[in-house]
Structures are given as C-alpha cells and as structure tokens.
Design brief:
The structure is a single chain. The chain contains eight helices and twelve strands. The chain is an alpha+beta fold and 332 residues long. The strands form two sheets. The chain has a ten-stranded antiparallel sheet with strand order 7-6-5-9-8-1-2-3-4-10. A hairpin with a 3-residue loop joins β3 and β4. The longest helix has 21 residues.
Length: 332
C-alpha cells in the first residue's frame, strides 16, 4: 500500500500539471461514469494529500477523494512539468549528512520505487510514469494522443497536454466540501498538513491514552496519518521500541521522538521518492541504498537475516493482519 510520502508526491504532480486547468473526466472502466460526468469540464483548483488519501478540489465545490489502498496507482502521461521543489534522487539530498556529496549520476531503484520527480527536476518531457508504491519507471508513450486506455482505468483525467489514469483504488468518489472536511477530521495528524507542533500534541495524546500495542497504533490512520508497514517497522527499530508495548506505557519522550522521526522520514520520502530510513551512510553506502531497498532499511523485509546492529535474527510475525519485522534484542 502506498505510504504517505507517495501520496504527497502524487498530489504535487497534480498541483503542477492539472491545477488551474479545465479537466475532462471519464471512466473507461465504467465504474465511475456518473462521477466522471459530474466532474468533467470543471477547473481543478486544488490538490492535497492527508496521509494516504488525496483530495482534488474542482470549481463548483466538488471534491474527488481517492484512496489507493493496496492495489491502486496513478499513471501520468503527456507533457509532465515536474515539481522543482522535489530533488532528484542523485544521492545529494534526503540526508543532511550527505549534502554536498559529489554523486553526479541519477540513482535508479532496481525495485521500481522511483517516480518521475525522483529522476530529475525541473523539466518538461513527454513520458509515461506510474505513481504508486511500486513505480514502474518511464516508458516511451509514442505519438498517440490521448494515449490508449490500458487495463481497468477507473478514472481518466485529461487536459490538453497531460493525462492521469487511476487504476484499482480502494476509494474513489465525489464529495461535497463538508464531506471532504469530515473525512479529514477522522484522520490523525500529518506532518505536512497543518502545524507539526500541534500534530505532535495530538499524536502524543492519542498514543498515551491507549492500551493498544504501539505497532498497531502507528498503523491506525486515526492516530497518525500516512504510516504504513515499512515506516512502522523502521520507526520502531529506530526508537529501539518493543512493538508490543501498550501505547500508554511508552514514555512520553519516546512518543514525541516517534513523531519527530516521522516528520524527518516523511520529508525524506517526499523529497527522494524512496523510503530511506538509514542514517550516517558513506557516499557509496548511500548510493547503494538509494538503488536497492535491500540496503535501505534496518529491519523491514529482513526476516531471518542478522540485525544490522546486534546480529540477532530479525523476527517476523503477523499483527493486525500485516507483517511486522523487528529485532527481539534491540527492541526488548
């Protein structure tokens, strides 16, 4: 499932390429025909992400809410103007200790986690790019415009020069402004939405009053927005925190540091397009980590392998119907 950084990056793509333009909407699959007809011909006024959900605001007080869920993805095609605020994934950004490192070639993720904006910005080019947790990279789209519909496209949004196709979302429907605000009100704080200090207070209060294991609380989108399975495992390891600890038993200073770590990691994810969770890497180590997620994480997807810190075998268990990776020694 796409985690918070991916959804924020998608929202930024819409902000650069669709906001301020009239949008034609259709539903090639047919499952969103009524909503597409309602939205088509309207100007897109705003694109925003809150955690794992994205909201596209159209004139006439109409909002399109999209939750990608486990299988959803956006495909962009046409003339894509990349957000210049997102750095290229060339090894120079995303970790403060790496700034100034002379790594001149872009780093391409062999697991396909890059998106267009992590390859180079700003630029204008005719490409096809998938925006999801498992980004497939760039493909030549040829001269046909609009591009042919491929697969089960729930929604196609089209300007004169840019196309966005949505496939496989968990949620996709039109909302009124009040419905959009009500949806957001049910979500926990997102470091990139509102005041991070206020978000820290909300997160701390929510965690400290619950007897639920912290591993489940971090995945509860009503407690904190945007954290998924990868960030959950990595944040708990970085805090050296036993995932089964009830929230109300986690010391307040540790809860606050979890929030501040999420602020840092989310910013890195949005900037690079990759869930980089390791610090203090040499330039060569950083380049390897940016190119392969096997070198990017402390515990995630490393079941049975030795802990990078203590050598203990990384444990894997199921909690809340999701896989949890952790070190029984470092996270006692």
């Amino acid at each position: 499932m796409p985690e918070g950084h991916s959804v924020h990056r998608i929202a930024r793509q819409f902000d650069r390429n669709f906001v301020g333009r009239e949008v034609r909407a259709s539903s090639p699959q047919g499952r969103f025909s009524e909503g597409a007809e309602f939205l088509s011909g309207r100007e897109l006024l705003e694109a925003k992400a809150v955690g794992k959900q994205m909201f596209l605001g159209f004139d006439g007080d109409a909002w399109l809410r999209v939750h990608l869920g486990l299988y959803g993805a956006w495909d962009f095609a046409g003339e894509i103007l990349v957000d210049p605020t997102i750095a290229s994934a060339n090894g120079r950004m995303g970790q403060t200790n790496q700034r100034g490192t002379d790594l001149d070639a872009p780093i391409l993720d062999d697991a396909g986690e890059n998106s267009l904006t992590s390859i180079g910005a700003p630029r204008r080019t005719r490409v096809h790019v998938r925006m999801s947790e498992q980004t497939k990279g760039l493909e030549d789209e040829g001269d046909q415009w609009p591009p042919p519909v491929v697969g089960q496209v729930r929604v196609r949004l089209l300007t004169d020069v840019t196309c966005a196709d949505l496939r496989g979302p968990t949620a996709c429907h039109v909302q009124t402004p009040d419905e959009m605000l009500a949806t957001i009100a049910k979500l926990g704080p997102d470091p990139l939405v509102g005041d991070p200090a206020e978000g820290e207070e909300r997160f701390t209060a929510a965690v400290r009053k619950k007897g639920t294991p912290i591993a489940l609380l971090l995945m509860d989108q009503a407690v904190v927005s945007g954290i998924g399975n990868v960030y959950r495992a990595e944040m708990l390891f970085r805090a050296r925190l036993n995932p089964h600890t009830p929230g109300k038993q986690v010391p307040e200073d540790v809860v606050r540091e979890l929030w501040r770590d999420w602020v840092r990691l989310l910013a890195i994810g949005v900037e690079t397009g990759q869930m980089m969770t390791m610090d203090d890497l040499s330039p060569d180590e950083y380049r390897a980590a940016m190119a392969s997620r096997d070198d990017r994480h402390w515990v995630y997807h490393r079941a049975g392998l030795p802990c990078r810190v203590c050598g203990t075998e990384i444990a894997l268990e199921e909690i809340g119907a999701r896989k949890l990776y952790w070190c029984p020694s470092c996270q006692r």
